[in-house]
Amino acid sequence: MSRRPPRVAAPWVRTRLRAAPGAAVALAVLVGLAACLAGAFPRAVDRYEDAGLQLTLRQARPEHTTVRVSAPQPDLGLPPERRAAALRPDVLKRQYEKVLGTVGSPLGVHRAQSAYGVTGTVSPAVPDPWLPRPTGLPAHISLAAQSGLADHARVRTGRLPGAAHPVDATTPEVEAAVTAATAEALHIRVGSVVHMPAPGRDPLAVRVTGILVPRDPDGAYWSTVPLLRTPTLVTLPTPGPDPDKYWLGALLLAPEAAPALLGTSTNPARYWHLAPDLRGLHAHDLDRLRPAVAALESGPGLQRARAVTDDGTDINTDLDDALASFSRLRSGIAPLVSVAAAGTATVVAVVLLMTGGLAADRRRAELALLRARGASLSGLAGRLLAETAVIAVPAGALGLAGSLLVVPAGRVVPAVLSALAVTLAACAALPLRAALAHRAVRLTAPREDLASVRPSRRRTVAELTLLVLAAGAVATLRRRGTTGDELTAVAPVLVGVIAALLLLRLYPLLLRRLSGPAGRLRGAVGHLSLARAGRTQASAVLPLLALLTALTTAAFGGSVLAGVAEARDRAALLTVGADARADAGAPLPADAPARARSVSGVRAVTPVSIAYQAKPEDGENEVPLVGIDPRGYGALTAHTGLGTFPPDRLTARGRSGTGRLTAGGGSTTGHLAADDRSGPLPAIASTSVASSYGTRRPFLVRLEDGSAVTVRIVLVRDRTPALSGPDFLLVDRTGLPAPAGRPTTLLLTGEHVDADALRKAVGGSAAVRVRAEERARYADSPLQSGAEHVYTAAVVTGAGFAVLALLLSLLRAAPERSALLARLRTMGLTRAESRRLLILESLPQALLAALGGTLTGWTAIRLLAPGIDLTTIALPPAQTPLTETRLHPDTWSLLLPALAVVTVAVGVAALQAWWTGRRGSVTELRAGDGR
């Protein structure tokens, strides 16, 4: 009797992957792309925030960021030998190593740029007559004995200083070196001797043995105390046009010669300068950095430093101020970026859930059969989880690796967590959707179209809960601005969620309203398309949610980016006053306007004269007086929109009295004859000037050259192109005295003005500023430009995944549509009618999403705008905003995404109709097909 061969069961996962390889590859690509983007986002944020922090600290300069540990000279009651020993380099080095241990994490020390030594806290005047004396006062000299001089300087002439014998307070002479800048300013050469005052003894002779060139003059070693590198010409606050001045420079002693300072009047002090390692400072450590710096200045760090150095040790640094400045800037930018991140994350999550739903619907019959044959719900979900994890986990790992390669800087843990969240969502989407759909064993699937399914009580409670959350988030953002909690970041998303749920409730009502008129039309295409649109599954909430969230986020993000660009344009315009300008401290040459007009890109030139020190009513307050050509300047104000006015109100001929122009004067360069200056000049004033001097009576204005004019304010304007300040007076310059009426500034209008050619045309005496260059300067900050780029990438990613959600929703119904068209084609439906049928069927949901997204985006922006100020992300911190920039809806940002949704939906429907027509009805209608 032969034995039956054992049954071999095919592995579930391998069988399923072989059955649908295309779906497996598509899922892997989707998960890999989503994981790559999710992992790259936190690293990109870390990268631009770290770059912004380092730029802030570099701009603060080492004299403000270095941690300066200082101790007074040893107690005067100690023996001279112990006092001298406390200043020797070996003792200071041991203390330096111990001081380094007091610095707490995450603040690191750049040892190569750190130093220790002894310096004089008093810089006495020296009697040597050969040192320069600009106003007769003797030069002042500071002495410093700093470690590591040989490593940080190159000897240009002579040699480094040294000490052949032990030095103490009685040593008569020591050696020193100076930098090249100090030697040039103080006329010091190798062999020069400087005599430092010493109480109770002869002056200490300091012989210069070398002239040095710093290797890194901008590093902390030389820049913590800039006097070591560069001398200073000190100006005393004495009255008179020529105040007293004297030179202040530094002589660099050998570290072994530091005890010699004890015998001078310099009041020596020991110091240990700790330069922070900027490369080791990260923005995400800011919450720990600031307490670490505070602990050094007045906390446990200071106590430990005193324990290893001296009881009188003190620690000072301005690093905490620089960190606070960066923190304020980041706190204004981060909430805006989080809004885009929340919207994009929502769209990506919806697409992943839709992918699982599409797979569950495609295998509905298979899964129902398994349940009918006794498969448990947990066992079925476990099998689906296993087959999805085999695809998603490697794809997520590859996506994470790609993000680490694309963005090499930044933390790894947030990237791993983000990619892991994407992978888990992709793995869980199919099992959860299948478990929800097959929790009960049914012979036939229930009808789930929008026209028949009525909202349950649970859905109503969930929608009301989301409504309360959205209302709370919007109210929080309007009241507290973007400094609120994390709920404000998802406020636009919650608004989109509420709109999606509301539109899904209204969608069946709208279809019923349209079905009546459509039924009275000729032909069956219109009625059939609405009937097909009504059979849309109730699970269409996911694609609609993705579209509305993406459209809301895109509208919000596009409006933010448009507002940033508008704020920068406005700030550049207010700063420059025109498309370009040339300012000179003296009257420009007569042919300067003509030369400027010949520059490429210049369309018009408006010359003006500006007297910055004009004094109304011979008072002490100065008000800039601007002499203009009313016609040309009026055209400039109309072009810029700054303080427009009717030129006839300002012309000098329009004032009281009968005046005439001198021969050859003309309206742009001439001036009224002296006997014709009988009436006051009409003037335009700023609001503050008009409130100070009134608009009803004329008043005298004294010019810088001693001449005077009488003006009367006839118009009041808030701004004017010639000046960006709050105070100004505008008059017709033909009514000014001849010297005061000559142009000192040229205001130019035109597109793409050649800045280099303009500088050559006006000469080197005039400072040229171009509006385009000024605007580009506002985007130089890594923190602001990086946030803008990440924001743009997040919005584009959200829009791309929203289009993918739309394609998935159309792909879900593609087999059923193809079968329907094939059946209708056998019944006489033409190809044109097939295209119309699919397009009209897809239009209701696409139009619903487009119109709803546009209205939702507009509503979200209007609701959230009072709490958002775009000035922080638009302008650098050093730029004082002249106006606050509020968020407002941008038309293109509202309409373009909505039009793209409709275009994609119509295009896909037309493409499907064309492809189905090419395949033919026989291919689509196969025996046993259940579509």
Short description:
51% of the residues lie in helices and 13% in strands. It is α+β, with helices and mostly antiparallel strands.
Topology:
Blueprint: H1 12-19, H2 21-60, H3 62-65, E1 67-72, H4 80-85, H5 89-100, E2 115-120, E3 140-146, H6 149-152, E4 153-158, E5 173-179, H7 180-186, E6 193-196, E7 204-214, H8 220-223, E8 232-235, E9 245-253, E10 268-274, H9 286-298, H10 300-308, E11 314-316, H11 319-362, H12 364-372, H13 377-406, H14 413-437, H15 457-480, H16 491-519, H17 525-534, H18 541-576, E12 580-584, H19 592-597, E13 604-611, E14 615-616, E15 625-628, H20 630-640, H21 666-669, E16 681-685, H22 687-693, E17 699-702, E18 708-716, E19 729-732, E20 745-749, H23 755-762, E21 766-770, H24 771-778, H25 782-812, H26 814-826, H27 831-864, H28 871-874, H29 891-919, H30 921-924
Parallel strand pairs: 3-9, 5-7, 15-19, 16-18
Antiparallel strand pairs: 1-10, 1-11, 2-3, 2-10, 4-7, 5-9, 6-7, 8-9, 12-20, 12-21, 13-15, 13-20, 14-17, 16-19, 17-18
Helix pairs in contact: 1-13, 2-11, 2-13, 2-14, 2-25, 9-10, 9-11, 11-14, 11-18, 11-25, 13-14, 15-16, 16-17, 16-18, 16-27, 17-27, 18-24, 18-25, 18-27, 18-29, 25-29, 26-29, 27-29
